[in-house]
Amino acid sequence: MADTVIEADPGHEGSGHHGADHDGHEHHENLAHHFDSYEQQFDAGKLGIWLFLVTEVLFFGGLFCAYALYRNLRPEVFAGCSEFLNTKLGAINTGVLLFSSLTMAWGVRCAQLRQHKMLVGMLASTLSCASIFLGVKAIEYSHKWSMGLLPAGLYSYDPSHPHHTDSPNYLAYICAPFAIALIVVVAWLIVAKVKGDDFKVRVLMPLTVVFACFFVGVQLGTILESGEEHAAGDEHHVAAAHDGDHAEHEAHDGDGEHIVVDQPDTPVADKSELTGLEVLARDKSNLGARDSLEALATQEKVAEGTVLRGDQQPDHSPTEQRETDTPKQAGIFFSIYYCMTGVHAIHILAGMGVLIWLLVRAVRADFNENYFGPVDYVGLYWHLVDLIWIYLFPLLYLIG
Predict the structure, then answer these.
(1) Count of CB atoms within 10 A of residue 161's CB?
(2) In Å, how far from its chain's centre is CA 283?
(3) Which superfamily does 46-238+327-398 belong to?
(4) pTM
(5) In this structure, are residues 92 and 220 in contact, taking their beta carbons and an 8 Å threshold?
(6) pLDDT tens digits, residue range 19-60?
(7) Domain boundaries, the chain
């Protein structure tokens, strides 16, 4: 009987030990009941996030294919319309996103080392970079919308009147949700401090900085956008002054003998008509006006009896086939631009939502060397979002 008890005790102890493990397994908040170990849980989650990222690559791949197709069909339209994009704003956003990838990767390491305060700081830094990115993008979008640089069907840009005075304040509409969120977070923070809720205070303080950074991005974008406009205006003024000096020099040069210093590309007859066409032709995307100038130059040479070379023979094809419908073609470019950058901005917003969830859990000190999967998974998603922008920036802003 004693032997039976002794034999039963080890079995009981083993069963009790297994039961304790089982109970610990069931009641552990970070290990799901259908996984046997943290390693198995992490590998399963890693596989799932990679499958999700593959679908994201396929989704954006379709957009890149549309870009390549339309650019191959109308390279001159894409080259002209890209002049409306501010490369400084795009470069700033590129740097901001690259820095956010650094802080996100650093955050994963902090989660593994149980550096909870540093993890909160890294997540808040990543969120702040995302807010700055969206603030700069708000300036880009509102500026183009006010000029009528809209998708196909809504495109209404007029080179003679680039800024519509009757256009609504698009920037106020974009900033309104972030302003409301900032006010709510600040009010909630004040209430939490009054009540002495330390947990909420530690969560809401970094979120206050995050939403305030959106307006930092707006201010930064405003400075860069206004500087670009002044530079363009100065360049236009210098070009106009140079044209005037050239015309005056040609009119007064020579003593009894007509000397042509620089033969103009366009005929000088019918000044009123040419002036209007030249103004329109300065817009590189307005290929119809440029074709009209070339046609008038050819007619002038034919009228003067000038023998034209083979490559200078006038084109008698119907004008409907030669002229480019600028609103339609430029609208296609901006349709692709808003689609690609807009979908990317939506992914930024989605990533911010998940990062806020991680921030709350980091304040709660949920992550450790055994359980850091959620931070790593969101980090992979964030790196993909940054990588997509690395392709968008040169394709839309630099290749002209």
Answers:
(1) 10
(2) 24
(3) Cytochrome c oxidase, subunit III, four-helix bundle (1.20.120.80)
(4) 0.72
(5) yes
(6) 444 444 445 678 888 888 889 999 999 999 999 999 999 999
(7) 46-238+327-398
